[in-house]
Write a structure and sequence with these properties.
Low-confidence stretches: none
Structural class: mainly alpha
Number of helices: 4
Number of strands: 0
Mean pLDDT: 75
Strand content: under 5%
Helix content: 55-70%
Order of helices and strands: HHHH
Distance between the termini: 52 Å
């Protein structure tokens, strides 16, 4: 906290928004549209958004079940609401990474391993 400056705080607050559920959904959807365009028609689409939304729902169910309180407000860089575990940013990032990686492999991008069929 001793290293916080107004400029760093502003930059990190902006970066934090990229881990929110709506931003992750937009990023995954945009990637899927791009990969779909790359693969062309006639290939099977990856049902990424429904999977992501189910994952977000499961995380929220875990929040309600575990009910872990957030740390002291003085330590916060960004205002938050609700419970703190499991972390929304961490679970969103993990789900997006798996979905995008799976879709990239399925799209047979150059340099990616070819799936065995």
């Amino acid at each position: 906290m001793a290293r916080r400056t107004p400029a760093r705080t502003k930059a990190l607050r902006g970066l934090t928004r990229f881990g929110s559920s709506p931003a992750v959904c937009v990023a995954v959807a945009g990637t899927m549209v791009g990969l779909r365009a790359y693969r062309g028609t006639g290939t099977r689409p990856v049902p990424a958004l429904p999977i992501l939304l189910v994952g977000i729902g499961l995380r929220r169910a875990c929040l309600a079940a575990i009910r872990r309180q957030r740390p002291a407000v003085d330590d916060w860089l960004y205002p938050a609401t609700g419970y703190s575990f499991p972390s929304g940013h961490s679970t969103n990032a993990a789900m997006a990474a798996v979905l995008i990686s799976t879709a990239a492999i399925d799209a047979e991008l150059p340099g990616w391993p070819r799936p065995s069929r």
